[in-house]
């Protein structure tokens, strides 16, 4: 060591410099091994779903209902391929680039045919593939993480038994370096993929709790109506406060305040969820018209009421 330092004409390190060097090396090794865990063994951090899902008996009718309320078809089907539902290929715009949705028909080769219940649950709730690779959060598992075991099992059974397998390979992903390194998503998930509800559901009535589940877990309304930080994580303290015009993908506030939804009557809310018709007689547009078609128009009356009851609890002041 001393010899090497002499050759390089570097003065021997004093004590604090040595300590600093040692800590830097340790920090480097730790981050290397953390990185390796993200890449090679994500299940050390995000434990695999166990076999307990196999004990549940599937309810396909409920699966179809929950499938609609979660909007799976909004991203995995395209208008261009009407006769091939869930074959994927929809290009989803994100602030980081375009991500293409995948084939989730029960095709054994290119779809999700033959996946175990646990594998499907890990994909939908943890964003981890059967091979242990992280999915991009354009797939809103950050909401689905709260989905119940029964609903996950039912959706998979619905897809397996009612959707035709389509033998169509996935398009390659086009995100630029370094976003194409999926290990980084692991770090992102530690920060943002949280199972806790944003709203304080412990103080909620039963109907408001059902609404929280429909909105926060299934309908993923917050994914568009909540502003994000620079890393693309949802700002939970500005939950549903709207994404301002001029920002990426603007969407209005859904808070129950005078300047947002507070003026809508319950009936106006219900008509909107059913049809997309606004209190002024016009119809909502853009992405929201897909949300109405794919998600909210499928709500049974009691669930639509639960959703409205939930939005009534969103008071911006309390959230902050
Ligand atoms: C907002 C768009 C969006 C919605 C809604 C959505 N997904 Fe996806 N999904 C994606 C994208 C994008 C990917 C690919 C992610 C990637 O490549 O990292 C994906 C990937 C998947 C995969 C992994 C497929 C594979 O071959 O590895 C499964 C399974 C899946 N989605 C199921 C579902 C189910 C079930 C629902 C409804 C509960 C759903 N998705 C809702 C966008 C969406
Ligand atoms: C993919 C993004 C996206 C998702 C998911 C989404 N919204 Fe929206 N929403 C929008 C956009 C964009 C608008 C503005 C539409 C316009 O004015 O053209 C909007 C508008 C609205 C409006 C105001 C209507 C208007 O036009 O003034 C309400 C109410 C609403 N959304 C409720 C919901 C609810 C409830 C959910 C969840 C079930 C939801 N949104 C999920 C993007 C989204």
UniProtKB/TrEMBL annotation:
One of its GO terms (molecular function) is heme binding. SUPFAM superfamilies: Cytochrome c. It holds the Pfam family Cytochrom_C. InterPro entries: Cyt_c-like_dom, Cyt_c-like_dom_sf, Cytochrome_c-type_DH. Gene3D superfamilies: Cytochrome c-like domain (1.10.760.10). Keywords: Heme, Iron, Membrane, Metal-binding, Transmembrane, Transmembrane helix. The chain crosses the membrane at residues 20-46. This is Cytochrome c, mono-and diheme variants.
